[in-house]
Amino acid sequence: MPVKRADKTPMPVRLPEERAHDFGEVNEGYALERAMFEAERCLRCQDPVCVEGCPVRIPISDFIHEVAAGDLVAAARILRTANPLPAICGRVCPQETQCEERCVMGGRFRPVAIGHLERFVADQERARGISTTAERTHSEKVAVIGAGPAGLVCAGELARMGYGVTVYEGLHAPGGVLRYGIPEFRLPKAILDHEIAVLQAMGVEIVCDVIVGRTLPLDRLFEMGYAAVFVGTGAGLPQFLGIPGEDLNGVMSANEFLTRVNLMKGYTFPEADTPVKIGKRVAVVGAGNTAMDAVRTALRLGAEEATIVYRRSDKEMTARVEEHEHAIQEGVVFDWLTSPIEVVGDETGWVTGLRCQKMRLGEPDASGRARPVPIPGSEHVIPVDTVIVAIGTSPNPLLVRTTKGLQTDRHGCLVANEATGLTSKPLVFAGGDAVTGTATVILAAGAGKRAAHAIAEALSPAA
Amino acid sequence: MAKILSTRQLTPITKLFVVDAPLVAEAARPGQFVILRVREGGERIPVTIADYDRAARTIAIVVQEVGVTTRLVNRLGAGDDILDVVGPLGTPVEIPAGGHVVGVGGGFGAAALLCLMRELTARGDRTTSLLGARTKELLILVDELRAVSTNVELCTDDGSAGHHGLVTGRLAELIAGQGPGRPDHVIAIGPEVMMRAVAEATRPERIHTLVSMDPLMIDGTGMCGGCRVIVGGESKFACVDGPCFDAHQVDFTVAMRRGKAYAAEEKLAAERLAAAGGR
Q1: What is the pLDDT of residues B243-268, one digit of tens each?
Q2: Could you tell me the residue ranges of all domains in chain B?
Q3: What ipTM was predicted for this assembly?
Q4: Residue after which a domain boundary falls, among A355, A370, A391
């Protein structure tokens, strides 16, 4: 029977003063007792509305019920059939705007900690080793372009349904943004490696160092025998501010900074060969999850002061609540309503400061968020050694430029059917950030899953 | 993973590798590059594709030792694997057909002229490979370039081979009508100081000139923006928009400054490699 308790069972977290200086994971995860204690809070609703908030439609109350009953194997089986990346989603999903936002308990109390429980079940499953397998029941093979969240989930679903799948990845290691973008302290790479190993155990083949559109034309994939193609190339093209001084040494995109640290392991330089340097004071422009990752990474690399500079206020920021809270605890400075207008440098061409002006919020703009308006006479220079630009990314145009028949919108996003992911090109499907522009891991996962089912339907229509 | 089929030492610090890379060989065009990595934890570095052989399914690259990774590459020999080779990357060179093309190769930059000059000569362009180096022993691939160019002009700083002086001196003479004559198009590949000097030599004459930029890169696919080059006042990504740009539009001052951003770290890494028994 459900036990009515108002509050969530807290996630054990490492102390800020300790964790802010290393790359160990911040959240420590539930132990069994805590997980069962929290699972008891689930009301097992007749009509579980939480599932509607989940892009991959995990049968949430079913798996939580198994946790409450202490059957973690059954809980993991339920999770796996709906989501090929549970250990990752349990860590990086913005649950507060998805499943947990819909949770009935959240009406009067706090919602059930669905994300923490998902993470717990996946972590317990990982400790037992890989047991997930899939049987090849269809002769058709599908090519997936990009081994990020959309591609991996699409591949996992297709393998589970019995199709052959090859994932082509441009970088030297699979994972996409999970590999190069999200830092170790939020998503340990060992967990990503495990989730990928599970997919490989299910028969998914992953080929790195192949950039479809350069190494191989997309149309060649069909000649090679693939019956359908899923494009999950993400939104990897960093946007810059377009203000004077952005070419100074010490200015970089969050993508560059995080890639140096995460993919290239720059935080271990000179152990690893790729250096990363940030100086004493760092400004990160933007307030999304990537900005939080960058600013907290800067602290861990030894920055004495790391500041978020954002032209709107905390109400408009797009970062997950937990990342914002963790950043505050770790000592990140927040300059809200502050808009950069120039990067200032010295005679050697290195950054010395970021000239900004203060803003106030005006009428809502096209995005529905209050438009920031400059306050006259509020110009000031924040002294910094490094400026990291984290104001968003757009889809990489490489594949589209080299492929005939792939339609994009004016933002460079692939045009694809929302329900099926079908693009303007026959048997080519797409999903994730390549279609939506910068969004979340779980939205990409949802799109990958929907496309996998649409591909299965296209290849072997149900009689 | 790509296997090295053969190697040839071109100078004490420059080595040519023929690498088994069927997909890259099939897709490669002049002006493109590959990104390679030689060990776990290793850097990703861009290396220009010097040549490709679609039938043999191989590419040729020339690596000169400047940092840790290039030193590590040059320790490899035939039969060894390069951990990662990905490409071809970048936009191929576009030069209008039918003119006299002078390819200026400074030092090991000559390597990148190989497949370009072959293609241009084959389609009927008049081609001149203008190669420069400090001294005779540092001129590379001269015979190979002779075989694929209409003319070859050599320059050495010490006069030990060809014209005594810099490539820009000889280029000015060509522009004035000497030797193979005035170029319609110039493409310069080599150290930034040389490329800048070539740009200045052709600017007053308004001769169409391209340079192949070689900035710091990480992914090489347009993802990080580390390779930003200012071209005509606009920020361009060398990895996808380049690496070849209009020489008269490139801001070399910014490019050279950005190239030195990690000089201290590069020195530290090189010393560490040396201490570990490397060169």
Answers
A1: 999 999 999 999 999 988 898 888 88
A2: 2-89, 100-212
A3: 0.93
A4: A391
